[in-house]
C-alpha cells in the first residue's frame, strides 16, 4: 500500500526488554532493520507510537521544539479491570467467558458509533492478549486528528464517568441521545442473560444492594423489602422492571444498564497523539496469548481462551516441519528456507487472524486507490 514518504522511517516503536527495561524512540529505515533489531534485543513487548516530523531515533539531536508528532491512528483501549465495580465473576486481571460479554458489547457499541456517527471506515479491533481489546481507527482523517479533536471523540463516547468513590456514574437527559439509544439496543439484547444468569446481580444481598444504590430514594425502600421476600434472581429482576417508572419521563433503568454494560474507555490513550499502544500480533508476556485481530462480524464467536499462544504455535510449526521432512521426496531437493517458513506460518492457527488483518489492509488499499483516482479526475489528470 502506497504511503507518504518517510512514513515508516518516522514511526516510533518502543521495546520492553527483560526486567521491564523500556526503550522508547526506536525507529527503522525498513522492515529488515526492524526484524534484525527484534531478533537482537528480543523484546517481551512491542508498542507502536506516532509518526513524527523526524526519525524518533534522532529526537535528541533535533532542534528543540522541532520534533513533533504529526499523525497517528485514533486508538481506543478497553480494559476489563475498569469494570471491577460491576462484575461479580472475576476481578483485577482475571477474565472468564461470563464477563467477556462486556467486551463483546463494547466492540459492537463503539464500532457502530465510529462507523455511523463519525464515518470512519477502517477500524481494526484487536484482542490485547490478556484482559481487554484495542481499536485502531486508520482512516487518513483519523490519523491526522489534533489532540483536541481526539479528546472530543473520546469524550463523546464516554458515558460512564466518575472514580471508585462515585456510586452513580451515569446521568441521562431526556430525550436520550440517539447514539446512546443505539448503545441501549445492543445492551438490551444481552442484559437479562448477562445480569441475571452470568453475573447473578440479583442473587445475593451484597450484589443487589449495588443495583439498588442506583435507584432513586422514593423507590429503593419498597424494592429492598420486595427483594428480601423474592425467591430468586429472576423474580428480583422482574420486580425492578415493574417498579421503576418508564420512559419518556424517567430513565432510571437505562442508567443502570449503561452503568453495568456501557464501554469504559481509557480516554488518556485516545486523547494523546504520542501515546503508544501494543502492536497487533504481539505475544502477551504473562499469558503467552497472541494479540490477534477480531472479526467484528463474528464477535459473538470470539473466545479469548482459544487464541493461539506462543507455545501452541511453536508446537504447530514443529509438527508441520516434521510432517514435511517425512513426506518430502528426494527429487524435490527441498525448498528455500524463506518460502518454507512462510508457508508453515500460514498453516498454523494464526491463519484466521492473518486473513482478518490482510482483508483489513486490502480494504484500506482499495479505499486509498479510489481516493487517488477521484483526486486525479478532479484535477483532470488523465
Secondary-structure map with pairings?
Elements (H helix, E strand, L loop, with lengths): L10 E7 L3 E6 L4 H11 L3 E8 L16 E3 L2 E6 L17 H21 L5 E5 L4 E6 L2 H4 L3 H10 L21 H11 L2 H8 L6 H8 L4 H13 L3 H11 L8 H10 L5 H5 L5 E2 L31 H18 L9 H10 L4 H28 L4
Antiparallel strand pairs: 1-2, 1-3, 3-4, 3-8, 5-7, 6-7
Give structural attributes:
3-stranded antiparallel beta sheet; 5-stranded antiparallel beta sheet; alpha+beta; 11% strand; 382 residues
In short:
The protein has helices at residues 31-41, 97-117, 140-143, 147-156, 178-188, 191-198, 205-212, 217-229, 233-243, 252-261, 267-271, 310-327, 337-346, 351-378; strands spanning 11-17, 21-26, 45-52, 69-71, 74-79, 123-127, 132-137, 277-278. The protein is an alpha+beta fold and 382 residues long. A hairpin with a 4-residue loop joins strand 6 (123-127) and strand 7 (132-137).
Mean pLDDT: 91
Q: Hey, roughly how much beta strand do the residues contain?
A: 5-15%
Radius of gyration: 25 Å
Low-confidence stretches: none
Helix percent band: 40-55%
How does the overall form come out from the CA principal axes?
Answer: globular
Helix/strand order: EEHEEEHEEHHHHHHHHHEHHH
Beta strand count: 8
Helix/strand/pairing class, anyone? alpha+beta
Distance between the termini: 22 Å
Instruction: Tell me the quaternary state.
Output: single chain
Amino acid at each position: 500500500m502506497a504511503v507518504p514518504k518517510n512514513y515508516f522511517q518516522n514511526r516510533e516503536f518502543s521495546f520492553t526488554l527483560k526486567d521491564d527495561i523500556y526503550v522508547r524512540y526506536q525507529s527503522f529505515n525498513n522492515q529488515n532493520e526492524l526484524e534484525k533489531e527484534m531478533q537482537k534485543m528480543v523484546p517481551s513487548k512491542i508498542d507502536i507510537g506516532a509518526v513524527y516530523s523526524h526519525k524518533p531515533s534522532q529526537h535528541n539531536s533535533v532542534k528543540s521544539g522541532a520534533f513533533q508528532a504529526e499523525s497517528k491512528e485514533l486508538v481506543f483501549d478497553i480494559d476489563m479491570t475498569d469494570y471491577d465495580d460491576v462484575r461479580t465473576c472475576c476481578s483485577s486481571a482475571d477474565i472468564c467467558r461470563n464477563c467477556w460479554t462486556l467486551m463483546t458489547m463494547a466492540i459492537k457499541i463503539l464500532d457502530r458509533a465510529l462507523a455511523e456517527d463519525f464515518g470512519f471506515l477502517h477500524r481494526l479491533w484487536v484482542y490485547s492478549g490478556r484482559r481487554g481489546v484495542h481499536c485502531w481507527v486508520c482512516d487518513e482523517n483519523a490519523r491526522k486528528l489534533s489532540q483536541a479533536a481526539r479528546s472530543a471523540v473520546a469524550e463523546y463516547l464516554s458515558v460512564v464517568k466518575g472514580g471508585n468513590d462515585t456510586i452513580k456514574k451515569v446521568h441521562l437527559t431526556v430525550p436520550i441521545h440517539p447514539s446512546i439509544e443505539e448503545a441501549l439496543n445492543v445492551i438490551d439484547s444481552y442484559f437479562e442473560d448477562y445480569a441475571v444468569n452470568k453475573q447473578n446481580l440479583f442473587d445475593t444481598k451484597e450484589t443487589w444492594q449495588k443495583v439498588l444504590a442506583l435507584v432513586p430514594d422514593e423507590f429503593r425502600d419498597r424494592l429492598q423489602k420486595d427483594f428480601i421476600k423474592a425467591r430468586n434472581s429472576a423474580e428480583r429482576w422482574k420486580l425492578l422492571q415493574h417498579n421503576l417508572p418508564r420512559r419518556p419521563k424517567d430513565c432510571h433503568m437505562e442508567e443502570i444498564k449503561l452503568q453495568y454494560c456501557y464501554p469504559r474507555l481509557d480516554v488518556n490513550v485516545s486523547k494523546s497523539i504520542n501515546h503508544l499502544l501494543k502492536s497487533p500480533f504481539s505475544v502477551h508476556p504473562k499469558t503467552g496469548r497472541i494479540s490477534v485481530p477480531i472479526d467484528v462480524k463474528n464477535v459473538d464467536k470470539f473466545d479469548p481462551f482459544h487464541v493461539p499462544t506462543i507455545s501452541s504455535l511453536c508446537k504447530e510449526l514443529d509438527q508441520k516441519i516434521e510432517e514435511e521432512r517425512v513426506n518430502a521426496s528426494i527429487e524435490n531437493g527441498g525448498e528455500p528456507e524463506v518460502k518454507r517458513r512462510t508457508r508453515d506460518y500460514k498453516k498454523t492457527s494464526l491463519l484466521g487472524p492473518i486473513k482478518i488483518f490482510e482483508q483489513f489492509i486490502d480494504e484500506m488499499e482499495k479505499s486509498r486507490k479510489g481516493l487517488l483516482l477521484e483526486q486525479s479526475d478532479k484535477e483532470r489528470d488523465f
